[in-house]
């Protein structure tokens, strides 16, 4: 009964392995070094994340001073990246300082300005450092979300150093599109137009009110991709709504023009803000701006409930899909620049796979030849276990959708060599028991039993090393760790369970005088 249970377990393991093993090219993903793809190193412009925070604080302080009925001449960011507050009355100075101290503890007065009507504030250095660190971490997460929606198997996206991010995408056929998708900042904002300043004379003269900014709408030729024309817009400096409240973004086709556009929907908080803005600004224009580019500036005809809007801009279907992806994944906290961009062809990978297979076949053949010569029939059983080990490893990799890399092939070959080690320990122990005068079956039982602790001890240390490599290693190192870890577990099963089951089936009910070992 126990022998039947052993065979049932073995057959189940093999059935599952074969199921997940084929077709091999679809079950097991190939890494960048084998399949080809793109290797990009991005640099996060963390200083701009700090400046963006200062811009936000500038707008918040301006609004709070108005709400607190404090008279001021201006609140602006100067060229040094500090916030300067110009007071109408020096007597208001203490009120402003108390408000800043209470609500903005991360801002410190520089104390370098002697003018009683001007307060200069700078960001606390520790806060600036935290913003920079968070910007890189958030950029990693946003890029990972975008790549997941792009549909790449087993991408490598990880932080390198203080400001760099490594991105490796295996099998990417359009690296240019992928780079655009990864690098797009995708900061979505809604601005009200300054109706009084939106005229040709104001824009040409450059006499823009201090609370306004100029942004441009670009018309791009679909065929050449070149900018055909630009339209200037004078906008109120503070955005009335941002993409932080975005809930959904999906591509739709306009029934009127048969062109794709991106439909967006805000969460409940964003929907409420959007409804209030549209209710208060009927017959005024609101610009939809993405990465400082004005996509459209429609007139608000009525109050809009439900928090839905659309972004149109003569997109191709692919451009609309990519825009929807970056909006769903979220905006980058700071722009990123491409520091290194390499496209790796698959020819190197094909050559590596062929050489890896040849090396594996030669290595396995050499091990089998040694086992047959040195351990005779017992070596034949060990060889069956060795070949079975390869099937289980490939099946397990297919089950977990593991990625096979060049180091992974090395790990597979190494594991195949190590797999026979357990059988060597068992057979040497059996020989020792036979020399002590035990019967063949007793020697066999004792050999498996006494070698077990040594097998587990030696494999556990290697298993721990494999897990550490997987946890802290990069893509190729992880590939090595995956095959090594799966191989160790598989080799214990084949060397101990499978080999012993074959021996018990052949010799269990027989009286044998000699064991071929």
Task: Name its key features.
517 residues; alpha+beta; Multidrug efflux transporter AcrB transmembrane fold; Alpha-Beta Plaits; Gyrase A, domain 2; 3 domains; 4-stranded antiparallel sheet; 14 helices; 19 strands; 54% helix; elongated; protein-transporting ATPase activity
3D structure, described in words:
- The chain has 517 residues and is an alpha+beta fold.
- It folds into three domains: 2-33 and 346-507, Multidrug efflux transporter AcrB transmembrane domain (Multidrug efflux transporter AcrB transmembrane fold), CATH 1.20.1640; 48-124, 2-Layer Sandwich (Alpha-Beta Plaits); 188-316, Gyrase A, domain 2, CATH 3.30.1360.200.
- Helices cover 54% and strands 21% of the residues.
- A four-stranded antiparallel beta sheet has the order 7-8-2-18. A four-stranded antiparallel beta sheet has the order 3-4-6-5. It has a four-stranded antiparallel beta sheet with strand order 12-9-15-16.
Outline the fold blueprint.
Elements: H1 2-21, H2 24-27, E1 29-30, H3 32-35, E2 37-44, H4 46-67, E3 72-77, E4 83-87, H5 93-103, E5 107-109, E6 118-123, H6 125-150, E7 156-160, E8 164-170, H7 175-183, E9 188-192, H8 200-205, E10 212-220, E11 227-236, E12 241-242, E13 246-253, E14 260-266, H9 268-280, E15 286-290, E16 293-296, E17 308-311, H10 317-329, E18 336-344, H11 347-399, E19 403-404, H12 406-435, H13 440-472, H14 475-507
Parallel strand pairs: 1-19
Antiparallel strand pairs: 2-8, 2-18, 3-4, 4-6, 5-6, 7-8, 9-12, 9-15, 10-11, 13-14, 14-17, 15-16
Helix pairs in contact: 1-11, 1-14, 4-6, 6-7, 6-10, 11-12, 11-14, 12-13, 12-14, 13-14
